[in-house]
Design goal:
The structure is a single chain. This protein is an alpha+beta fold. The chain has one domain: Thiol Ester Dehydrase, Chain A. It is built from 2 helices and 5 strands. The chain has helices at residues 34-51, 134-144, and strands spanning 16-20, 62-73, 82-92, 96-105, 113-123. Strands 1-3-4-5-2 form a 5-stranded antiparallel β-sheet. The longest helix has 18 residues, at 34-51.
Length: 150
Amino acid sequence: MSGKQERLRRDAFGPFRTVPTRWADNDVYGHVNNVVYYSWFDTAVNAWVIERGFLDLAGSAVVGLVVETTCSYFESVAFPEAVEVGLGVERLGNSSVTYRIGIFRQGGTLAAAQGRFTHVYVDRATQRPVPIPADLRAALADLTSSGGSG
């Protein structure tokens, strides 16, 4: 990302998932370390995909591989807070999707951090890009509009 990132509001995101922070998430500066945010991104996206039946971890022929992630930080979060992770879709391509993800303090209006998380869908056996399956594409399209319910 270039330039200053616009801090997004809660209504720019669809489904939310509450994630607890852990004691081990804090670093020596007394706040959650930056690498933990990427774990929250991964958790939010994959939970959404799995809970809706679009991914069978052991058997799906088509899987999404992460090819890019970014994160902008606006305010610190620290243990023992829980955070609310909001999900949306920023770009839906033929074989890829870029998710928009916001990390919010519980009840917060503005994102404490936000980022992007891009999956490229591939054939599990060949690892070559394939079109996003139609049922998943339809669900992702619902998340494309701001505040999609997912």
